[in-house]
Amino acid sequence: MHWNEAHHAFCTLNENGDIWDVVKVHQEGRCTKVSIVEEVLVKHMILGNYVFLRFFDLDRWEGELDMPNSVDYVSTVYWHDHNIHARWTPVHKKDGTLGRVFLRGFQIIYPPNDPDIQRVFIEGAPRQYCTFIAFDWKRGQIGEYSCSPEKLGNYFVESDYPFETTPAFFKREVLRKYQSDIEKYSVKDHQIECRSIWGLPFDINDEGQVHAYLIDLSRIPYTEQLHWKSFNESPKAGISRRAYKTDFLAQWDTEPEPLRDLKQLLNEFPAVSTPSGRIDLWQQPTGADANLIDQVHYPTGDSRQEWETEIIELDKLIIEGFCTKYLRKVANSLGIQNEQLGSILLLREILKNKGIAPDLSNSIIDPLHHLHDLRSKFAGHRAGSDAEQLTREIRNKYGDFSGHFRRLIVSLYEGLSILADLTEKGYINLS
């Protein structure tokens, strides 16, 4: 557990990855109270063989505050019953009537001794498991099967159950929840991670369906299983070629994947040489955007809003990553008038001045210009006629926003690969 100032509590993460206030500090005026989650305290008592002592000390009076004497102490009554141990001392007034009483003692509270109840506190309530529509390739049929490990088989023991590696298929929108909450979830390399509490491997087949194995689905919380079940559907194709090669043939995945390859290219983008040392032509984001490269994903459906969000993130990652200050120095050294030029146009003029063939230059500049133009039209003028016209053109040419985004990623990767090669060969160096 760690102290969380905002929660005024010692906190941990529950199985869903949410912050859980275990030991809460309540400040009410000059009074400070500390509360502990009962199930955590009882579990601690069971494991340590402890008891809980509840102390009480009460003083009640009316009228004047009379002080006890030896006669009052002789009249003290003691209780030792039902784990309560206490003494009650009366204080009499001068006329013999009762004017004040003291009650002091403690109660012993034992943890439950029933083994079944103790098991619930120690291990938690019995886990629940959903059923999913899945392809039972053991029998070659589609059916609805539980993801409970007790109802899954393996290759080594004969059983009537489907294999643990039975794939279930889902609409691609199932990923939207995880891609949109970047504080809680990380989605990369065909893996969803929830604050290191749980993870789920997945892949996407040729029909755009997300698929995951039943045994992996059994390891995520029941509430997450219900989320996946709401997007569950019959398979429209088999598992992806990548999953088949890596999971069943134990081979490396060497097939190109545009977004993965683009991110790897950016992570390894070469620096340029200058008289004072090497400078990054493209720089990794810092500060609040330090993890931006992991936050760019393919759109999960044909939602224009989601597509716009990904376009903005992609533009921030790539276009804002160029070192405009350095490009301006190179332009100055080449005699290029550049006061009003941004990074894309600066790069275009530098490539032209360096004698780069127009087709190569266009392969680099056109995708960058298209990306930045999309961000300008949709982020800045969403209701404008230009945006509406572009929307119609994208749907007519690519079928949906997801198809357009994938094609854009391909062209960006191809263009930036050429730029990386030119950079390594010194074409962008500052003489």
List the keywords.
431 residues; alpha+beta; 3 domains; 4-stranded antiparallel sheet; 24% strand; elongated
Written description of the protein model:
With 431 residues, the chain is an alpha+beta fold. The protein has three domains: 120 residues, no CATH class; 118 residues, no CATH class; 167 residues, no CATH class. The chain has 14 helices and 19 strands. Strand 9 and strand 10 form a beta hairpin.
Write the layout of secondary structure elements.
Layout: E1 2-4, E2 9-13, E3 19-28, E4 31-36, H1 38-48, E5 52-61, H2 70-74, E6 77-81, E7 84-92, E8 98-109, H3 115-123, E9 131-136, E10 141-146, E11 167-170, H4 176-180, E12 185-188, E13 191-194, E14 198-201, E15 203-204, E16 210-213, H5 214-217, H6 222-229, E17 232-233, H7 241-248, H8 258-267, E18 271-274, E19 277-280, H9 304-318, H10 324-333, H11 343-353, H12 358-380, H13 385-398, H14 401-424
Antiparallel strand pairs: 1-2, 2-3, 3-4, 5-8, 6-7, 7-8, 9-10, 11-16, 11-17, 12-13, 13-14, 15-16, 18-19
Helix pairs in contact: 8-14, 9-12, 10-11, 11-12, 12-14, 13-14
Strand arrangement, major sheet:
1-2-3-4
Largest sheet, described in full? 4 strands, antiparallel
Overall residue-averaged pLDDT value: 92
Total count of domains: 3
Distance, first to last CA: 56 Å
Number of DSSP strands?
19
The low-confidence runs, each spanning 5 or more residues with pLDDT under 50, are: none
Q: What structural class is derived from the secondary structure elements? A: alpha+beta
Gross morphology is elongated
Q: How many whole angstroms does the radius of gyration measure?
A: 34 Å
The fraction of residues in strands falls at 15-25%
Number of helical stretches of at least 4 residues: 14
Question: Helix content range of the residues, please?
Answer: 25-40%
